[in-house]
Amino acid sequence: MIRQYINSIVNCQSMEELWDKHTEKMAEYGFDRLIYGLTRYRTSSSLGDPEDMIILSNHSQEYLDMFIGQKRYMDAPMVRWALTHEGAGSWAMINEIMASELVSDKERQVYEFNQRHGVTAGYTISFKSVSARSKGAIALTGQKGLSQADIDAIWQEHGRDIHLMNNVAHLKILTLPYNGPKRALTKRQREALEWVGDGKTMQDIAAIMGLTTATVEKHLRLAREALAVETTAQAVLKTAFANQMFILDNEL
Question: What is the number of structural domains in the chain?
């Protein structure tokens, strides 16, 4: 079963296909609501613009509008844990955090918000970072009606397999093209960035694409605006991070 799952994930050609398969598999173990997040723009004081992150979830839109849209995740105890740890963490530690005199009002508000939405028992997996600025993690929420003790018992029996499958899914996500709707590029914008990445001059790119240099410059300017960056070099880097450079059209 695990081999079959891993084989199917390795062969996924899109983020949507992978996420459908992964959420279905995790539900078999009692985790029916997931949030995956990956940033490559982390600093000492920020996780970067949410629009530049990869965020995948099957939680309700109402929950996501508050948790992600209003950035409540920044004060979520297990998110804070994930930023300084690697591996799997039981949400049993949340009760310990809440009992601490050091817990902030914002952390308590997030805790109460999750309680109201039935996000009460689960595990968080913090993935090994590939650079100082990147961080990925996934929150696995147990089905409503399951206590943390129930979830811990499931993890005791299947945790190694669940951890392995999530690591495989994470590593596959790192290879798949992804751009949020507000960061989408046209084919011409992407092509112009690819030629810049190949070291071509503006005149070279104009000749290769059969355009004037002014039109090439326009495509690059619109690409910078779409990606919310100031320089073309930054646009190339951000596009490469999103695995949107030199991709086949049928993979979009």
Answer: 2
